[in-house]
Write a structure and sequence with these properties.
Elements: E1 2-3, E2 6-7, H1 8-14, H2 17-24, E3 30-35, E4 42-44, E5 47-51, E6 68-73, E7 80-87, H3 94-105, E8 113-117, E9 121-123, E10 126-135, H4 136-148, E11 151-158, E12 162-166, H5 168-171, H6 175-248, H7 252-262, E13 267-275, E14 278-285, H8 289-297, E15 302-307, E16 312-313, E17 319-327
Parallel strand pairs: 3-5, 3-6, 6-11
Antiparallel strand pairs: 1-2, 4-5, 7-10, 8-10, 9-10, 11-12, 13-14, 14-17, 15-17, 16-17
Length: 334
């Protein structure tokens, strides 16, 4: 697969095989090297040695005891090598130029061959690259010959052009399943990581909501308590005012006692009224009303005695009067 001039197979070759095997289900493979001196297929560490004649004809000898997957790089003389040239401005579309050039200048169609481009190089105002081509039919014959010897071709490469063909999907029937499983595992891991990262914030938000509710409840309680405090303060103020009023207001019994002691026997009181801080009395006196007012002026606890009604003389010779006195506030003993 190519994107512009970028060959994705080159990037795929950079990923270790075990990584692709674990995460993509790609089958592992050994490197198959062709040795002109070899007479049979042998294993050498991670490599496989095979006679060069395997590329052209069947070979004698038994197959391997256990089939193995291999990657091969074809020798240069087994691959058609072509030169592709295009203007420098067409560098990004060089693969498309190579495809069109293959169809026009060779008897092959693209579906009949495997091909790959080598590294591009700039020469003057031209960009050039080598195109490596091999017939599909020849590769199928080679794969059949290799299977007969216990060799399964996974990837076919050209000497300087990277991967010509990849048969990994044919060798691993469960690669799609592995990819789905690994994708699900990746999603699960990302989900767990997101939960691990977001959980403290979610817990903190829940705590903030609880604290906000508690704060609102406390504010409501504080307002109610403040109202109660204001009510109690008003009650205490009213109580103190009532107590002060009750203590400061003059008592009728006290006023009557003081008047009884102060008035001479020649004075009769037939009406006594306590109005706020004023005492109003009316009656008869055998002495002069003016003398009575003077006598009341000398009484402690009273002030400003004055006539508030007409003075009339009775048939008995007594004078009828109405006098009002101011009562001074009583001193409360501590």
């Amino acid at each position: 697969m190519r994107f512009g001039f970028l060959d994705m197979s080159v990037l795929s070759d950079l990923v270790p095989g075990w990584v692709k095997a674990v995460y993509l289900g790609t089958p592992l493979a050994r490197i198959l090297r062709f040795d002109p001196k070899a007479e049979e297929i042998t294993l050498s560490g991670r490599a496989v040695l095979a006679p060069l004649s395997l590329l052209d004809s069947d070979m004698d000898g038994p197959p391997l005891a256990k089939p193995i997957n291999v990657d091969i790089t074809l020798p240069p003389d087994h691959v058609l090598r072509r030169q592709i040239s295009a203007p420098l401005s067409a560098r990004a579309t060089l693969p498309a130029v190579a495809r069109l050039d293959l169809q026009r200048k060779t008897p092959f169609q693209e579906q009949d061959v495997f091909w790959a481009l080598g590294p591009a190089r700039v020469e003057g105002d031209q960009v050039q690259a080598e195109q490596w081509v091999v017939r599909r039919a020849d590769i199928e014959v080679l794969r059949t010959r290799m299977r007969a010897k216990g060799l399964r071709l996974r990837r076919l490469s050209a000497p300087e052009a990277g991967t010509l063909a990849d048969f990994s999907a044919e060798l691993s029937q469960t690669s799609k399943l592995w990819q789905v499983v690994n994708a699900l595992l990746l999603v699960a891991c990302l989900g767990l990581a997101a939960i691990w990262w977001l959980y403290p914030g979610w817990v903190a938000s829940q705590q903030v909501q609880v604290l906000t509710r508690d704060q609102s409840a406390l504010q409501t309680q504080a307002i109610a308590l403040r109202q109660k405090v204001e009510t109690l303060r008003q009650y205490q103020a009213d109580r103190a005012a009532l107590s002060a009023h009750m203590l400061d207001r003059p008592l009728l019994s006290t006023a009557m006692t003081d008047l009884t002691k102060a008035l001479p026997d020649t004075v009769w009181i037939d009406m006594l009224s306590l109005q706020s801080a004023h005492l109003v009395m009316s009656g008869e006196t055998r002495i002069s009303t003016a003398d009575l007012v003077e006598t009341l002026s000398a009484l402690p606890g009273f002030a400003n005695p004055r006539l508030t009604g007409p003075v009339s003389r009775m048939a008995s010779g007594a004078e009828r009067f109405e006098i009002t006195l101011d009562i001074a506030p009583r001193e409360v003993s501590q």
